[in-house]
Design a protein that fits this description.
4 copies of one chain form a homotetramer. Chain A contains 8 helices and 18 strands. Chain A is α+β, with helices and mostly antiparallel strands. In chain A, β17 and β18 form a beta hairpin. In chain A, α1 packs across α3, α1 packs across α8 and α3 crosses α8. Chain A is globular. Chains A and B meet through β1, α2, α6, β11 and α7 of A and β1, α2, α6, β11 and α7 of B. β11 of chain A pairs antiparallel with β11 of chain B.
């Protein structure tokens, strides 16, 4: 597979640059008979949309998605689904000075060397703009999973140095940060306002949880469910780390402490994060992503140009001071896409399996 | 692709259970003309081998690998390479009591529900035994990369609560822990001896580094190099977390601090860990893996059996009190396999690209 | 991979139904730096376009393609290329009676049973309309191959019972049949006119040739070049047979007669059709496709409806009396796409191979 | 995927050269719980085995297959299945003169140019010896299909110029030719004896039929079932043509004649060959393969050597005067493998589809 396709049975292929004519995706392998409409997709796109608060980029994109195929009389047909979002608010003149420059910590340098010829406007294909299509495709995946009783939700668990503990799911969609603790929001806002004054940026940590996942998803040994989740989540721009369950805390844990014991009433803990031996256990699947701070900051930085000469870069344009603020819907989307792919792969190979052992409830 | 194949152009497919007749692999897509012998593979297999110190499982497996095809007169032919390791020291009687029991934190429960019918002896396919084939296949990948000037080496950077700072590469292969600091070894040994007396286990953190990687490897947007590395590394048994470069430390970093500035003499830092925009930058690629503590400990634990009844489990048999101790060669292997796959994919698509911009040296 | 993607390194993914909003494709893995414009694609689309002669369907579709990404300042960037063609002339009312009926020899029955819910208008996804995207994507492939000196051309070698011998390439694009013999055209026209009066249809045979292909393309044993060509060509609607080189004539040939001997001046014959051991030999690659007669004819036929009741079907609407008449550009496209995919795969794995043995010229 | 893997969900990966140490395969994605033993595989291997009649190569290979993993207590576990056949009767001294020569119509020339370094003994990887693994893997596929009521059988429908009409299935395994007409056998034997005296070879046509296939298998538009069958069948050594159903006869057929009408009692004909719109219709799937005459004949032929110098080649060694004679089990195997892959892919995506329309019986 080429790099712009994700999945084996349920596949998502995308295209589109930051300043190109449009963004698009083809979702293939979606089971037929699933109710689907543009509204289903628009909901998650609106959660991700730039320009929706003063804390995110001021580029105004309506991000209106069209479904061009694969849906008939309100339900999927099982044929490939074409999605399209026309770009409307690209300001190309912001980038003309940058065509011969490599912005530090951006993909300019690597794209230049890999491809030789790159669309330098706004990061081209390397821009986070392409994640809009992941969210649109992920909404289709979420729709299928919801019909199976699987719910995927995420939240921001850390903004820069500020840890955010989980309080309620309801809070998450009621503030611009996807914070699960409403009481933290003023502190987060104050921090962001200062960041903007400092002309700097900071990283974030997102936690995403899938509940209601049945036991059995995942394809050992290489396509273990956690490995594929790591793949999908780390493919998101700016992600530098992934944890499942106890994650890096597992390093110092004793086996007697880490292991999730079982009883007829269910698992007694969930350090595994819902994945055992690379296969879902029925417990909530919890993953955490570490996002690096945005590289597009107005503080000058040292770099070189395409001739190898030293230059100083000041990134202008409209940028997110913290990309993590809009990452939650993207992480949910990638988790959803991965889970649907594995749902179909699992039932494809194992549809005849029938066991009498009762499935354990969650802890 | 099925779950037992990794890679797109350079692929590794494996088979083999802990107590089966043999383990095997097919490596496909290896460039022709590469000098290759069983000795090349055996070297890394011996680094991984169980029974080589008192700190690892006492199962004695010679792990002698045979090359059955794809090599002629000492060089690869470009055709598929078959590898085989016969199992010799499986003690099946150790596991007969366990056929109807689910050992907590093992894959027994999930395999049972996914497949309905499982080889329960020693963990069957879920056992870390299969990683022997990854190491053998990875040795082929390392051979190719070495010819291109790429070196991949790993070490243990943390054992349970004990952090191990990097001192020298030479130390790494001179102790049973793959510790890069020889002075830490007595402390590690003492810790392990106590762990064994406690009948418990602990996790570990492995760091693996690839140097000499040219700029340009990686296939955005989904097959970003870091995403694929995360996939390959997290597919290793017991891995619960992956970091690239600054990893989770990126969360609290400012953009002005995290970004790796550039000068004509090279990059000025490497928080990115050698991957920018999902493409290798030419800097050393650094990844860290968090391994959970082994689930096979002799301390009794609560669980259920296949009828859903509560039971108490005591895991007997010969097990690693810290699987991390043998994980270094496996992590190196997965990184090597991923890099070769991307080497071939990159030159397949971009062989005609030629840029005059000088490549930056490492920091 | 899902069924709507073709290729491994150079991939084409398509969507779009006969009466949907639009058709689209994503071409991924195209090497960067290739000059590309909408005109390059439109040329081949116009050759395929319906409504361009009285011998093809009277549906008028301008088939104007847009390139939405992956091209910057007139050259490809190496990123995924999005293509879009808006449908404009679908007449849905022609099909409303057919929603509960299965037209014999159409995909209605099989789509109904496979998916349960189908877009019945004009054949939905099973309609030959989707081949417009193959032609558009194939034009990109042809562009790359032309830059390498590879030319792909096809022609009609048989219309119903009328065999057409090859005379010149120039004739092919000068008549509506893609006939390589201008003198045959009146006979073909007369035959077609009678066919229309008979309210019937007939099959056709297309020959497609690739010249200038270097030795070495193809990936034994399963992805032999001829096997992949067969796959791509037989995936075209209505194809029931494929031949490479001598094809079915090989059955009765002696080995002494079939084998293509070699001399320093080149091959002495080409019964192999340019593929030896599944790898291109440098000789022209010749393939022939057998296309069945169109199933959409106005002559009544017996069938059943979705309730299993017997019915009589008369297919109305605007249809090709011989789908073969427009198949030539589609066959060229599939051959081009397959060859580019193998070009990239071959150089990906074998870029370092260098042999001194001279390459043989063509016979 | 690399060229030595076939399939998407149910995959077969093989290795092994004619004169290498062993042949092997890994079958992945086999549903669990399927009874499987080495006897199941040996049966079909024995049908294919060289040295079993005077009409085939005189190389004596027992072709004893071992199952090394993926089967426990007589049933598959769902994990990857490793298969191994040790080569025992390779006579390498027969080929030493040929290392610098290209035998006409063999893959020597193309392998040399593709890979630069080849195993020249007995054709290396290009030899038909590798098909033993396809037959072994295909036996697993057949086992699964048989449990679903699908039967795959093939026969020789033409030997050189001699057409063989189908009489009974029972005859097929009672003669060395897989002839479905016992009365033809003396004529075939006489023809072959003369061929041997002429030091020549001839081609053959094989027909393979799958019965009991349910409606719904196949993944339009590119992985149409017939396209994938064509891929699998044409990947077999020496195949130059593929037909499905009416095949090339469709060219001259009228639509009114070709179309298979339907009635409540079933289809009224089967020109489609069991595939409609790329999806199985429930009718028998019939495919025909054209095999070219063996290139290894003792009649001298003109060729060149690795220096480009003209030479005369006389192929010694032990060869099949008609490779078609052993092709039937290989064609059955490839059809079985393709059908299982599609069985799993279909139920993976469409397991929830339920239609009330009755399925049609066969004609």
């Amino acid at each position: 597979m080429s790099g712009n396709t994700f999945g084996k049975l349920f596949t998502v292929t995308t295209f589109g640059e930051s300043h190109g004519a449009a963004l698009g995706a083809i979702v293939d392998g979606c089971p037929p008979g699933l109710p689907l409409s543009e509204e289903n997709l628009q909901r998650d796109l609106d959660r991700r949309r730039p320009g929706s608060s003063r804390h995110t980029t001021q580029r105004q994109e309506p991000d209106q998605v069209r479904i061009l195929s694969g849906v008939f009389e309100g339900k999927t047909t099982g044929c490939s689904i074409g999605l399209l979002i026309e770009n409307t608010d690209q300001r190309s003149k912001d980038y003309s000075k940058i065509k011969d420059q490599f912005r530090p910590a951006h993909a300019d340098y690597t794209y230049h060397h890999k491809y030789g010829h790159r669309d330098y406007r706004g990061g081209g294909r390397s821009s986070a703009r392409e994640t809009a299509m992941r969210v649109a495709a992920g909404a289709i995946a979420k729709q299928f999973l919801a019909a199976q009783g699987v719910v995927i939700r995420g939240y921001m668990s850390q903004l820069g140095p500020i840890k955010i503990d989980f309080k309620t799911w309801e809070s998450v969609d009621q503030n611009a940060f996807f914070s699960p603790d409403p009481d933290k929001v003023p502190e987060l806002e104050a921090y962001m306002d200062q960041l903007r004054r400092d002309q700097d940026s900071v990283g974030a940590e997102i936690t995403v949880v899938a509940e209601g996942v049945p036991v059995g998803l995942g394809e050992p040994v290489f396509d273990r469910l956690d490995a594929e989740l790591a793949h999908g989540l780390m493919s998101i721009n700016a992600v530098k780390g992934i944890e499942i369950g106890a994650g890096f805390a597992s390093v110092a844990q004793r086996g007697s402490e880490h292991r999730d014991e079982m009883s007829p009433d269910g698992f007694l803990s969930n350090h595994a994060g819902g994945v055992l031996g690379g296969i879902s256990s029925g417990q909530p699947i919890t993953a955490r992503l570490a996002l690096k701070p945005t590289s597009s900051i107005t503080t000058p930085g040292r770099s070189i140009d395409v001739y190898g000469e030293p230059i100083e870069i000041v990134t202008k344009g409209r940028h997110d001071p913290c990309v993590g603020i809009r990452a939650t819907p993207i992480a949910e989307a990638m988790m959803a896409i991965t889970l649907v792919d594995h749902w179909l792969r699992h039932r494809g190979q194992n549809a005849d399996v029938s066991v009498t052992t009762p499935r354990l409830g969650q802890c």
